[in-house]
Amino acid sequence: MDNKPTISVSLGDPGGVGPEVILQALSDKSRRISARYLIHGSSHAMHLAAEALGIDPFWWRVDARSPIASTADAHDVVLLDSDPELIDEGLNIRFPKMPNKLSGRLSFEWVERAIADTKRDQRDPLRSDAIVTGPINKQAWAMAGKKRYPGHTELLAQRLNAKYHAMMFVGDKLRVVLATVHIPINEIKDKLTIGAVHTAIDQGHQACVQLGFARPRIAVCGLNPHAGEDGLMGDEESRIISPAIDHAVNSGILASGPYPGDTIFNAAIAGKFDLVVAMYHDQGLIPVKLLERDLAVNVTLGLPTVRTSPDHGTAFDIAGKGIADPGSMSHAIDLAIKMCTESPEVVE
User: Fold this and answer.
1) Nearest to 197 by CA among 298, 279, 256
2) How far apart are CA 270 and CA 151, in angstroms?
């Protein structure tokens, strides 16, 4: 046995671009040398993606229920195939390029199985060191009866008992952590607390240290326009955000703010900050997806295992055409390997 990490990969929605970007990323032999992969997914979806891409199958397929799956450590890429289960149920293995109940059910189950891999005994050949998730469709999850989970982050946090967790996006130019995640805008005022903001600052700080920053410089966004304009446009900055920053500073974290959300990202791009803490989803994700398209990686902080994901969705409109950009998925796999194996080079 060598020291290569084992990474569990959930295929994502089988009708989306997940199968394509995963195959393209893993077709690079350097990634197959650096880690082992357990792909939870569908042989049908994988072969359709391979045909669209003109890639010859390079994985070992086994029925996910088969005892011989325990020999997975003899192979670099293993597909733990769900198709035999569907056949036994008399279901038609067909994955429309649109939200549907079957794809929602499968993409949810594959994440559950990837999570289960990380809980196995260290000596189990199916135990994994990290999870990389393919893109899912939230409507499909809801159609499959999983509406209580608005995304991967919430499911992972519950299954792995991570009371305090945060969503971080890592790109070449920007690193962003969210204080709140998948909630409606009109509920932010009820969910944004001193604790939520401090958790994002603290866990973002720890992640940046793991990525190699000796003392990360952290900028914290305000919630309101112009960061509240000294109370003229809301009091969340003085009542919630500033106390969280003060608490972080008192614990030795180099955090400052709150800064206006419409200007602080320029300062981060210019190198004045190593991390930006955003108060809500779109405040942080719009600059990331504008400036780091096909490069940024979604990382769930606060879990007992590494979890990364591309920062894009299922892209049903281009799925099956072989044109999806694998950049974000490739970066997600590379970052998972790095977080499992490397001692970071310290950035002063």
Assistant:
1) 279
2) 32
Cα–Cα distances in Å, from 299 out to 109, 187, 196, 289?
Answer: 20, 24, 17, 15
Give the domains, in start order, of the chain with CATH numbers.
Answer: 1-162+304-348 (3.40.718.10), 167-302 (3.40.718.10)
Strand partners, 275: 218
- The structure's pTM equals 0.90
Closest by CA position to 135, among listed 337, 340, 309, 343:
309
Tokens of 339: 């977080």
Whether the CB-CB separation of 284 and 276 falls below 8 Å is answered with yes
For residues 300 and 293, give the distance between their C-alpha atoms in angstroms, rounded to a whole number: 19
Q: What Cα–Cα distance (Å) separates residue 56 from each residue in 18, 46, 51, 59, 311?
A: 17, 11, 8, 9, 27
Are 274 and 208 in contact by the 8 Å Cβ rule? The answer is: yes
Strands 175-178 and 166-170 turn out to be antiparallel
Cα–Cα distances (Å) from 11 to 249, 279, 341, 342, in that order, read: 41, 30, 23, 26
Q: Which residues pair with 37 in a beta bridge?
A: 7, 77
CB 95 within 8 A of CB 56: no
Q: What is the pLDDT along the chain (348 residues), one digit of tens a residue?
A: 468 999 999 999 999 999 999 999 999 999 999 999 999 999 999 999 999 999 999 999 999 999 988 888 889 999 999 999 999 999 989 999 999 999 999 999 999 999 999 999 998 989 999 999 999 999 999 999 999 998 898 999 999 999 889 999 999 999 999 999 888 999 998 899 999 999 999 999 999 998 889 999 999 999 999 987 888 888 999 999 999 999 999 999 999 999 999 999 999 999 999 999 999 999 999 999 999 888 899 999 999 999 999 989 999 999 999 999 999 999 999 999 999 886 555 555
- Which residue matches tokens 């791009």? 269
